[in-house]
Amino acid sequence: MTTGSPHTPGPDESVTDLDVVVVGAGFGGIYMLHHLQQLGFSARVLEMGDGVGGTWYWNRYPGARCDVPSLEYSYGFSKELQLEWEWTEIMPAQEEIEQYLNHVVDRFDLRGDIQLGTRVTAATYDEGRARWLVETDSGERFSASFCVMATGCLSAPTVPEVPGRDSFQGRILQTSMWPREGVDLSGLRVGLIGTGSTGVQATPEIARDAAHLYVFQRTATYSFPAYRGMIDPELQATFKANPDDFRRQQRETFAGVAGFGGALGPAAPPTRRILDTPVEERMAVLDQEGFWAARTWADVLVDLEANEAGSELFREMVRRTVHDPEVAEALSPRGYPIGCKRLVFGVDYFEAFNRDNVTLVDLHKGAIESITPTGIQTGQGHYDLDVIVFATGFDAMTGALNRIDICGRGGRLLREEWSGGGRALFGLQSHGFPNMFLITGPGSPSVLANMVVGIEHHVEWIGDCLIYLRDHGCHTIEPTLEAQDAWVAHVNEVSEGTMYTAPTCNSWYVGANIPGKPRVFMPYAGGLPAYIERADASASAGYEGFTIG
Ligand code: FAD
Ligand code: NAP
After folding, report:
1. Ligand 1 pocket test: which of 61, 98, 151, 401 has the largest number of ligand atoms within 8 Å of its C-beta?
2. Is any atom of ligand 1 closer than 6 Å to the C-beta of 46?
3. E strand or H helix at 339, and its extent?
């Protein structure tokens, strides 16, 4: 184990003293700050972006949009906020969510305690003083009793190393760092690398603007139809009549989506099983209802054989949509189950490949070799481009934390403690890092559920914990190694037999998208209710599994 270098600031060094430093100003950091203020703690949020919103500040690529309904993907902590904010679209676009989060910041007068343009580079625990020293890229220092890492699960972008990148004479863009002022792609030849959720959303939008779009695909995607449309005012009124009841229902559902009694989807999960349905009838269902994975078939996401039958039906759907049979075949996913990667939802994705100005570059026929001054060189030829767009994803769940030099008790470095995968009790705290809390850390449902519901639960759990410490005259809290190990074992156990851990599944959930990252399934797959019950039971039992001092 490498030892970090704990640093106690000298008397001449200026340090801002706080009760709590919060890192990140997305859904997590914004609510954390408000909650801490309500509880009487002094706190400051440090955010590297120049605006608030986190995911919804950074990801402003064409087509960026949420795939959880806005009424579900929003805060439940304030009744007034819920009553006064009017959502327009069922699935909100980036802009509307960013506006909403800015409204929350202003409505609760939080802006003064959010420091933008400030990247946290290091956080060091001073065991003697039981304080965290947090350092930033501008050399500022903050000393705090507690540190809350609201740094996000999908906030550390990753771009593959492609030789020659610096030689490109056109423009290189990254979807998760899309310029705030927008980009005019009209008349340009654009190369888009990546066909995950981001690439699927961006493809039809870029195709509409660009002279020509080349989509560089390494793995074909199961992309399901996304809802679009404006919210029915009556539905919004029904929600506003009783938001508390609705928010309670969210926490009682597996994925944190209450569902509006079927108004935005099927009222009840399907009972129809694909394996019990003759092939002709499957086709009839495809004709009548389209293909919605678990919303159409009960067994597709739970049984590998059913999943393969579902995949075949999916490929039939692609063949029916895409006119050129060769392109349809290349766009048809094979070799991994539906649902092993995060489900992708899109509109007009497959249809985009029927356009004259869209070309699929199937990288199985020749991989990307280099970026040249004029485009991309692949094993199947050179593509002349004006713009290259990377939609290549994130170092998920642990990436943002591992990019900070986090040095805990006894000089432990978090990234080294986590070299075999992220470990944290309930995804909230990691052994060896007292008084540091993680919002949606590894081992919590996080990315497997409506994230706002998970975030709100974490913020409130942390708030309750700080009150408990204050009321009991205590100063430190840290998980025991035994409790943490037992939780990590439970997280692994729960994921066994799911599509997420199928042997053929290479997803960011298991770190497979990052060369050298340990292959460990990171989120908790047992659902929100089971998770909340356990985390809350520990708190009710005086923080069982944690050492308090
Ligand atoms: P983030 O919003 O990621 O905010 C973290 C913040 O921390 C960022 O602003 C970042 O700049 C900052 N930060 C990180 N490191 C540092 C540092 N060292 N110093 C200073 N600041 C730092 N979830 C859903 O549930 N449903 C969806 O439909 C959905 N759609 C998504 C679409 C996209 C394009 C992406 C990328 C993610 C989506 N997610 C979705 C997940 C989304 O990230 C969460 O729902 C939620 O926004 C996370 O909020 P957060 O506050 O935890 O993290
Ligand atoms: P992603 O799902 O990780 O997809 C990255 C894509 O880039 C994949 O197609 C990947 O191919 C490709 N890629 C990576 N390296 C490559 C290389 N060297 N050459 C060619 N292709 C390469 O990332 P994402 O699309 O940004 O989505 C990440 C997550 O953000 C989602 O899973 C979701 O949770 C969230 N998100 C949600 C929405 C939404 O609709 N709500 C929208 C966007 C993002 P391989 O598959 O072969 O690795």
Report:
1. 151
2. yes
3. none
The reply to whether the predicted model has a pTM over 0.85 is yes
Residue 67: partners with Cβ closer than 8 Å, 6 or more residues away: 91, 197, 226, 345
Q: Which two tokens stand for residue 493?
A: 């156990």
CA of 26 to the centre of ligand 1 (A): 6
310-367 pLDDT, tens digit each:
999 999 999 999 999 999 999 999 999 999 999 999 999 999 999 999 999 999 999 9
Q: 98 has which bridge partners?
A: none
Are the beta carbons of 17 and 144 closer than 8 angstroms?
yes
Q: Which of 237, 3, 46 is nearest to 134 (CA)?
A: 46
Looking at ligand 2, which atom is closest to the CA of residue 175? 26
Q: Which contiguous run of DSSP H or E holds residue 401?
A: helix 399-402
132 CB-near residues (< 8 Å, 6+ apart): 21, 123, 124, 125, 126, 143, 144, 145, 146, 147, 435, 436
Which residue CA neighbors atom 46 of ligand 2 most closely? 219
Please count the residues of the chain. 549
- How far, in Å, is the centroid of ligand 1 from the Cα of 176? 10
Q: If residue 67 lies in a helix (H) or strand (E), which one and from where to where?
A: none
Which ligand 1 atom sits closest to the C-alpha of 57? 9
**Ligand 2 centre and the CA of 58: distance in Å?**
15
- 286-310: per-residue pLDDT in tens? 888 887 777 789 999 999 999 999 9
C-alpha distances out from residue 196 to 34, 88, 391, 394, Å: 34, 26, 8, 11
Ligand 1 pocket, 134 CB below 6 A? no
The burial of 430, by beta-carbon neighbours within 10 Å (0-12 exposed, 13-18 middle, 19 or more buried), is given as: buried
Q: Which residues pair with 311 in a beta bridge?
A: none
Return d(Cα 441, Cα 219) in angstroms, integer.
28
**Tokens representing residue 23 in the block:** 């890192």
CA of 199 to the centre of ligand 2 (A): 7
Strand-pairing partners, residue 174, are 390
Whole-angstrom distance, CA of residue 101 vs CA of residue 51: 10
36 Cβ below 6 A of ligand 1 = no
Least Cα distance to 3 among 405, 485, 481 occurs for 405
